[in-house]
Design brief:
The chain is mostly helical. It has nine helices and no strands. It has one domain. It is about 80% helix and about 0% strand. The structure holds protoporphyrin IX containing FE (2 copies).
Length: about 160
């Protein structure tokens, strides 16, 4: 998988990941932004997430095809984690839509909010924070190298 890692340390990944991180940070803090910004930004947030997945599409297809064949344990872990992350993100998004107080009513769809969806949205969004932190932790080397190379323009080893 060294070849994949070399290719993945590229500038477009870095900028998309930076936007993704900033958007995720803001979307995860509705207490600070207020609910209207939280809801509208959550819709916009779909763009960097899809972009992030498109940039890794080859990796996703390749590892999925090889999943039942020998693979480095780190790659296998990342694949399983990424799938769980995707499912959880979808649950958070759709439960968010079901408890919408601003965006859906403004689109002419008033909702009677069921406390079950509210509590599911709150619980899953908190779990998503923890899972995303682990997703970032396992890519920490990449993050440090990408910051040095693309933000501080320092030479870094080609190994990443
Ligand atoms: C639906 C949620 C997400 C999914 C399915 C997902 C999926 C992926 C995939 C497939 C990769 C490349 C393979 C690997 O794991 O090594 C990856 C890498 C990465 N992701 Fe995510 N990701 C998600 C959310 C996020 C979020 C919210 C952030 C930032 C806060 C993030 C930051 C990163 C970073 C820094 C890398 C490593 C660098 C790179 O190759 O781009 N991801 N992610
Ligand atoms: C996919 C991205 C989303 C993330 C990461 C996210 C995250 C969160 C978080 C962390 C909270 C606070 C939970 C707590 O108080 O413990 C919250 C509350 C809330 N979210 Fe989201 N959310 C997302 C999508 C949405 C969407 C799409 C909508 C509606 C269009 C929405 C509507 C709401 C509402 C109304 C609350 C307040 C609910 C309550 O206090 O019972 N969210 N969200």
């Amino acid at each position: 998988m060294k070849e994949k890692k070399k290719k993945s340390l590229n500038e477009s990944n870095f900028w998309v990941n930076l936007v993704l991180f900033a958007a995720f940070f803001i979307v995860s803090a509705p207490q600070s932004t207020g609910i209207p910004i939280h809801e509208w930004l959550s819709f916009v947030f779909a763009v960097p997430i899809i972009w992030h997945l498109v940039l890794h599409w080859k990796w996703i297809v390749k590892v999925t095809q090889r999943f039942f064949k020998p693979l480095p344990s780190e790659t296998r872990f990342n694949h399983i984690w990424d799938v769980l992350l995707f499912i959880l993100m979808a649950v958070v998004f759709f439960t968010g839509v079901l408890v919408s107080e601003v965006a859906l009513p403004m689109m002419g769809i008033p909702l009677e909010i069921d406390p079950f969806w509210s509590s599911l949205h709150n619980t899953t969004s908190n779990l998503l924070l923890v899972m995303t932190a682990i997703h970032l932790a396992v890519h920490w080397d990449w993050i440090v190298k990408a910051f040095k190379r693309y933000l501080f323009r320092k030479p870094v080893s080609q190994k990443a």
